C-alpha cells in the first residue's frame, strides 16, 4: 500500500505539539537542506541550538533520525523531524526536489514512520474552497453520479463522478486537489473553474472535503485503469459510511448500474423483494425455493444491497446471513434447498424468523395447515423461600408450553414458528438479573441483587412477560410510596430565619434518620422494618440527597428540624431543581415568591418618572425595591443602552424621604468619565434630588466633605474613592451604586479593596458585562454587593456553574435589548477582511518570527507568568502592524491595508449620508486617521481618555444634534457611558481581546432612542493575529449566558494554549 503524506499524518506521527513547533521552525526559515537525493535527505534545523535530521528511504518505509537529546524520550518524532517533513512536502509540491524512491535501502531501526511515507506529498488546507463571510462568488450547480464498479473476483466498489454546470469533470482527482488548494481547473474549452469567482453550496463543500480525504485511499484498489486521473473516483468502504449521509442529503446525486439510471440516491429499511417459498413433496420432505436473489446487487464490503435504485440497509447479522445464503446458492448452482422432516422442526424455529427480516416468507397450503402461528405468551413466576428469590420462566404457544432452560421435545404432527427474537430479549433480561440457573428455573440469594431485579429488571420484563408474584415477593416492593418532602416554614419566634424538616407519611422519625444515613452512604435502597425494600434512587430522593450536602449542619438533624438564616436558607433552596419536593407554608410561599422573583413585586413608581419608564424598567425598579426590603444586594446587568441609570434614579426617588429622614445620602461610584454624565441624568429626570460631584483637588474635595448636610446624592469616581477611602470608610450611606462594576472584577486590586470598605444599608452593582473573562469576576462583584451569598471564593469555585446560576438568579437581573425592545431597529454586524500590503507583510512576518522564537523559550509553567507581559507586548506589536506600522516603526513611509479600507468606507458613508463612529484602542491610530480626514476635508469630533467629563457630554450632545458626521473615539475611554444615537454606523478599526468591550462600543449607537438600523463594521487583517483573536472571542462571548442563561458553553483567559494557538507554536 502506498501512503501519501499530509499534515494530518505528520501530526499523528509527530504529535500536535511537535507539529506546531516544526511548522514554526519552517515558517521562520529555520530549515536548511544540506543534501537531497533519491531516497536520502539531510537537513539542518536552526534554533537556540542547531540539530541535524537525516531521512532515509528503504523497502519498508522511511527512517528518521535527529541528534537532539529529547528525541529518545519522545514516543513520537520530534519537532525538528516535523519541520523537515513539512519543508520537504512544500518543496515536493512545488516540484523543486525529486520524489523519494526505493533505489537506496538502508536497514535503520525506526518505528516512527510508515511504509512508502514520502512517495507523494499533499497538503490538506481548505482556505480557498471555504465560503466567505459575505459570499459574492457564483454558486455553481453540481451533480454526482454513484456507480457500483466490478473489480476482479466479483468484488464491487462504489465510484463517483462529478458534473459541474452540465460539464463532466474529466480528471476528478486533479480537480479535487486543485479545489482543495485554491487553484483554478480547466474543465472544458469553454469553462474554467476559478475558486476566486466560483464556489459551491455548503452541502456540496461537505461532500467535496470527504472526496479530497478519499483520494489518498483510492490506490488501495489496484488493477483498474480508471483510477489514475480519470473521471471516476473510487470510494473505499471505510469512507462510504462518512460520505453516504452527505450524499443522501443532496437531490443532485444519481445512481447508475447495469445500464439502469436513477435520478436520486435514496435508502430504505424495508424488506427486500425476495421470496422464501416453502413447499412439501410426498416422500421427499420439504423444499425451500429462493426467488429474486439474482436481481439484487450486493455490495459485500459496504454492507449494502441495491435493488431498483434503492440502497437497502440491514442489521449486520441479517446482512451476513443474506450474503452467506447467496454464496451457498451460487456454489450449489441452484436456488432450491431440500429439507428433511427432522431438520424442518428446527428449521421453522430458528431459520424462518430470520428469513422474515430479510424478505417475504411463503408456504404452501399444506404446510400452513400444519404450522402454528400462535403468538408467544411468556410467563414469569416469582416466589420467596428461605431468603431466596425463586423464578420460573415459560414460553407458551397456545397449548404448547416450553421451559427455555430444558431441551425441547418436538412432535412431528405439530409445527410452531417460535418468536426467537422476543425469546432472546427475555432471556437476556433474565441474565442481567445475575440469577443462579438450574435445569428447572432460577434463584437469587443476595438482597442487593434481589433489589436490582425487582426495581430495575422487572419493569423491563413487564413489556414482554406476564408476571405472577406471591405475597412474599410483593411485600418486598414498597407500594405505599410516601412522597418524601422537605417542609419549610418561617418560625414565629425568629424573623428572617427558615426552618427545614424532612418528612415521609407513615414513616417514623427514627426510620427517617436511618433513611437519611443510607442516603448519605449513597446506598441504592433501605430495608424498612416490615421487610420492604424502599428505593433510594427516585428523582425526589436524588434532589434531597443534593439538598443534604448543601446543609451547613448535621444531616440527621433534618429529621427533627433545623433552622437557618434567611440568606443561608435561600442558598440551600437554590440546590433544589424539582420544587415538588418542597412543602412550603402559604405565607412563606408568598414571602419566597417575592424574594425569588423580586421583579414581580408591586411598589409604587414615583410620579416624576411614571410616564417615561418602560415596562421592563418598572420591573427593574420593583426588583431593586424588593431586594432592599429584604436587605439583599444585587447586580443590575441589563444590556448596554437599556437605562440602568434611569432605573437607579427611580429607586433613589422612591427612597428620597427615607434618605432625608435618616440623613444618610446615596453614594454613586463610577468611572471618572461618567461622573458628570450621572449628574446630567439626575438633573434631567429628578432635579429635586440634591446632588454633588466629589471631584477637584484634594483641598477642594476636603471642603466638599465638610458641607454635605443637605446633599441627597454624592457622586465620585473609583480613583478618587481610593484616594479618599479614609473618609468614605467612616461614613454610612443609605444606598451605594457601583456603576460599571466590572471595574473591580479583580478582587485583589486596590479598587476592589476600597469598595469593600464602603458601609451602606443597600448595595447595587450596575454593569452590562458582569462576566468578561472568568467566573471569578462575578464572585468579585457579589463579594462587594452581597457577600453573604457565598461563604468565600473557595466555596464558590467548588460549585457547578448550574448551581451558581440557580443561586444568583434572584439577585442578578439581566435583560437583552432584543428581548425587551421589539421596536428597536436592527443591528447588522459584518466583518470585513483585508489583505496586508506587501510592506506590511514583510514587517509582520519578521516580528512574528522573532516573537515565536522568544515565546517558545517561555511557554512553561515556571516562566510563563513571569514573561506574560513581555509576550503580550509582542502580541500588541503584531496588532499594531495590522492597524498601521507607523504606530511604532519610526520613519515608516508606507500605508496600511486597513487604513485605506477605512478611508474607502468613510467616502462611501459620506455619499450615502450615513453618520459614523470610528473606534480604536490606539490613540495614535486615531491621530493618524484624524490627520488623513483633515487633509481630505472631513470634519469630526474626537474623544479619548484625556477628554474632561464635562466636555464628553457636550461632544455627545453636539454630535447627536447633527454637528458633524464623524466621531473618532478611543475604545476604552468611549466604550461606556456615551449616548450616541445620532450615529447609524459603527466601525471597529482594531480587534480587542474581550468581545464585551467591542459590544459596548457598538451599543453607544444601538440603544434606546435609535431610530435607524445600525451597521457595525469590524475590520480584520486576513491571516494574522486578528483572526486568532476572533477565535478566542468566540470562546468567551457566551460565558455570561452560561451563568445567567445556563447552557453548555465555556470561557477562558489568555492561557498558554491560547498563546500557542495565536502564534501557531
UniProtKB/TrEMBL annotation:
CDD domains to which the protein is assigned, alphabetical: SF2_C_SNF (cd18793)
Keyword Endoplasmic reticulum: no
Residues covered by the Helicase C-terminal domain: 898-1060
GO MF assignments: ATP binding; helicase activity; hydrolase activity; zinc ion binding
Domain Helicase ATP-binding: 625-788
Record-annotated SWIM-type domain positions: 51-89
InterPro entries registered for this protein in UniProt: Helicase_ATP-bd (IPR014001), Helicase_C-like (IPR001650), Helicase_SWF/SNF/SWI_bac (IPR013663), P-loop_NTPase (IPR027417), SNF2-like_sf (IPR038718), SNF2/RAD54-like_C (IPR049730), SNF2_N (IPR000330), Znf_SWIM (IPR007527)
Keywords per UniProt: ATP-binding, Helicase, Hydrolase, Metal-binding, Nucleotide-binding, Zinc, Zinc-finger
Protein name: Helicase SNF
